[in-house]
């Protein structure tokens, strides 16, 4: 037996004024608004290994000198400020989605972080920040013999 789900309608959705619903639907699903919300900050991946944490930010079109990484107590902030050139201002775009002119992302660091062991690398449009863990936080793997 196959189950088929039918779309449910709330009471009187189109009964009052279908035009109003269409305007609000198109306003909130407009690609202009959704594109602006998505492109404000770059996407980030955070991974953890036995010895370090790794942040990867997708930030294509920037150079190494555009980035600023600072650590204040247990907060790491990655920011970038890209100055647009005169050739960018004079170009006529029909749609422009690269808009990382400036951004700032902050992340709270756990207590196991070694603040002297933080390295950053920018290659192929991805900023990788590796944050080492303290030696006592690294769990040593060993085999336990059963007696």
Automatic annotation (TrEMBL):
UniProt cross-references to Gene3D superfamilies, sorted A to Z: 2.60.40.790
Q: Which domain of life is it from?
A: Bacteria
Q: Where is the SHSP domain?
A: 35-147
Tell me the InterPro entries matching this sequence.
A-crystallin/Hsp20_dom, HSP20-like_chaperone, Small_HSP
According to its UniProt record, which protein family does this protein belong to?
A: Belongs to the small heat shock protein (HSP20) family.
Question: What is the official name of this protein in its record?
Answer: Hsp20/alpha crystallin family protein
């Amino acid at each position: 037996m196959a189950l088929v789900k039918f779309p449910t309608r709330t009471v009187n959705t189109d009964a009052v004024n279908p035009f109003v619903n269409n305007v609000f639907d198109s306003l909130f699903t407009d690609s202009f608004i959704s594109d602006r919300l998505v492109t404000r900050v770059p996407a980030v991946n955070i991974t953890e290994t036995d010895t370090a944490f790794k942040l990867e930010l997708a930030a294509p079109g920037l150079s190494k000198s555009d980035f600023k990484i600072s650590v204040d107590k247990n907060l790491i902030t990655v920011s970038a400020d890209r100055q647009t050139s005169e050739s960018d201002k004079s170009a006529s775009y029909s749609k422009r989605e690269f808009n990382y002119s400036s951004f700032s992302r902050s992340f709270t660091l756990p207590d196991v972080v070694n603040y002297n062991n933080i390295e950053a690398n920018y290659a192929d449009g991805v900023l990788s920040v590796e944050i080492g863990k303290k030696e006592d936080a690294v769990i040593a793997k060993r085999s336990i013999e059963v007696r």
